[in-house]
Specification:
Length: 119
């Protein structure tokens, strides 16, 4: 049942429910080295492509109520910065926007025949 819940929580971005499931099934994952960090890496990846800014408390909750030192470690790893209001600057999504020139390939002759038949 835990694996089904895990499979639904990750793609569904239900990170608090995921963290609760991890805590309730600790005996299943204790023997898997790096499992929780891999889950946190996935969460950070999703945050990185989704948010420009995120509240520190929300990020901490998503990552499983990490300590301040652990949160700072994740911030450093991903190059995120925190301001004095507790907001974490993740990434400027404008940097991902790629303008595209749209070139129309309709000549006047093809349009004029359509307009002549519509009158």
């Amino acid at each position: 049942m835990f694996l089904c819940s895990l499979c639904l929580s990750l793609p569904g971005l239900r990170f608090p429910a995921l963290q609760q499931g991890l805590e309730e099934n600790r005996e299943l994952i204790d023997g898997i080295t790096g499992f929780e960090d891999s889950v946190r890496k996935f969460i950070c990846h999703v945050v990185g492509i989704t948010y420009q800014n995120i509240d520190r408390r929300l990020l901490a909750e998503m990552l499983g109520d990490q300590t301040d030192v652990q949160i700072r470690s994740w911030l450093s790893k991903y190059g995120w910065t925190e301001n004095e209001d507790g907001q974490i600057f993740v990434y400027s999504q404008e940097e991902n926007v790629k303008p595209k020139n749209i070139v129309e390939k309709i000549d006047f002759e093809s349009v004029s025949s359509i307009m002549a038949t519509s009158q």
